[in-house]
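Pasting as-is:
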Amino acid sequence: MAGRQYAAGRNTDPGPDAPGSVSKLSPYIRYRLLTEREVIASVLDQHSLEAAEKYVQEVLWRTYWKGWLEMRPSVWTRFQQERDRQQENFSDKNLLTAAEGGTTGIDAFDYYARELVTTGYLHNHARMWFASIWIFTLRLPWALGADFFLRHLIDADAASNTLSWRWVAGLQTVGKTYLATTDNITRFSNGRFAPSKELAREAVALTEPPPPHPISSPQSLPRLARPLEGVPTLLLITHEDLQPETIVLSDTPGSVPIAAAIIATGENILWGDGARAFVKLAAADTALRIAEQFNYRVELSATLDASIMISAARAEGVKQIVTPYAPVGPIADALASLFPVLAKEGITLTQVRRPWDEQFWPHAKKGFFTFKERIPSLLREQGLHK
């Protein structure tokens, strides 16, 4: 389904109970239960890069968005500030309630609002239609729409969600917007919807001050400190990367002796009930897997805060905590607040970034087209493409 059949059918949303052309692997990739590398490797074992080009590109959109935001973290801060401002100041609460409750009278939009809340998932094309109608037909603040998705999508991450909404609004690629039309919705929903209420006829791009320039060169990201070798260590696992055995434990086998592991899922940071339920189950599975494979004592915690980290470190008699790197977003914000508190206790917190991210993220300097041109050569460097 990842080859030409996917390319032909990927834009069609036949409905949640009908077979479609999309894989629905996004929640597993989002929390790195599956990595982008694993998925693309599996696809290219069965298809040529030419045949699977669209599928590979869709997987790499998530990598691209993360890299783009990683080098411009103030855009995430800007979104949070705009969201908070609109939550306080937006006056038409009735319209906002109707949009979130699926009672606007726009059939496709209302259906997708309810599907999102019920299932925690929307087809990618439906997400674009929804965001376009939210911004240009209903004229609701884009940041409140992005927040609505964050609160309900199981697969939402800070980069993909924020930047996709910015793209629809004309903020990401300045002046380039996405306009949902009745004809497009009818065609790609297999005739399930034909919005009779008039949709916006044009999508005038929103404006903002220019985003900052990237903070790194095309060849590198800001360097991370390496874990101290031979030092007993506490492994910290968060919901940003639930596969530590392919990064922390594989890149430094034996050189960083792990005394125990703690999985702090950050359920208080996750936005919606669906995401919290998904991560809770995934974390329990990860704990069992890590304990069985490495014979570590693994502790599960719903929150990520300094007191938990300090207590766990003291219990194991360790002064070093190592964790898979958390990209820009709430977990990264939480970790940043931990650094000085842990340091006062003589505990270091070191992040380890995946080679995949080290290689791909620096190329997210401009638009996706420029990034796309680099995909074949980057996959060759990963040993995935001849």
